[in-house]
Amino acid sequence: MGVPSSQLYGVDILAGRVSAVSAAVPNAHVAQADARALPFPDARFWLVTLFLVLSSQDSAAQLRTLAEARRVLQPGGHIVVWEPRVPNPANRATRLVRLKTLRRALGTDMSSQPVTVLPLLARRFARSPARYRQLARLRFICTHRLAHARG
Questions:
Q1: Half-sphere exposure at residue 27, Cβ-oriented, CA atoms within 13 angstroms
Q2: Which of 3, 47, 86, 151 has the fewest beta carbons closer than 10 A?
Q3: How many domains, the chain?
Q4: Average pLDDT of the chain, as a whole number
Q5: Phi, psi for residue 84 in degrees, rounded to 5
Q6: What is the pTM of this model?
């Protein structure tokens, strides 16, 4: 995407995932850490992304992780969150991230959009980008939420 890997930072709580990312993206700064206590100074980043992080946490941990994301965000920066918005019967360990939780942590001016057409339908019926866009207009079959907030 044009960003030098030396400007990429990340954390994962699992050492194996940190090792895998470090091997795949050698110059990135990846640490084994808990998202509820990030090892970065305040206002360090212009962009903070949380992709499928919150859905492995209970609601208290979700709020703490979102507070940490805000802490390390520069004024005027962006937080982007992608999480399930409907239950996943194939993975009962996945927790939903409630819209009210996101608004409580990120503010009421946060935007949210249902995205990601139900994978079984997408694979079967949406073999073209145009067909996928048509299906994506049917919000009730969109399984995830993309949320955005500015710092």
A1: 5
A2: 3
A3: 2
A4: 92
A5: -65, 145
A6: 0.88
For 66-113, write each residue's pLDDT tens digit. Answer: 999 999 999 999 999 999 988 888 888 889 899 999 999 999 899 999
d(CA 63, CA 35): 11
- What φ, ψ does residue 58 adopt, rounded to 5°? -75, 175
Q: Are both 40 and 53 inside the same structural domain?
A: yes
User: What pLDDT does 90 receive?
Assistant: 83
Q: Residue 141 pLDDT > 80, yes or no?
A: yes
CA angle 114, 52, 30 (to 5 degrees): 140
- In which domain, by residue range, is 21 found? 1-33
- Alpha-carbon distance 148 to 80, whole Å? 5
Annotate 80-99 with DSSP letters as a single string: EEEEESS--TT-TTPPP--H
Q: What are phi and psi of 85, to 5 degrees?
A: -115, -5
Give yes or no: residues 29 and 90 share one domain.
no
Q: How do strand 29-32 and strand 9-12 relate by DSSP bridges?
A: parallel
Would you state the structure tokens that stand for residue 71, as one six-digit string?
């802490």
Q: How high is the pLDDT of residue 71? A: 97
Place of tokens 């212009």: 46
- Does one domain contain both 94 and 145? yes
User: For the chain, first and last CA: distance in Å?
Assistant: 23
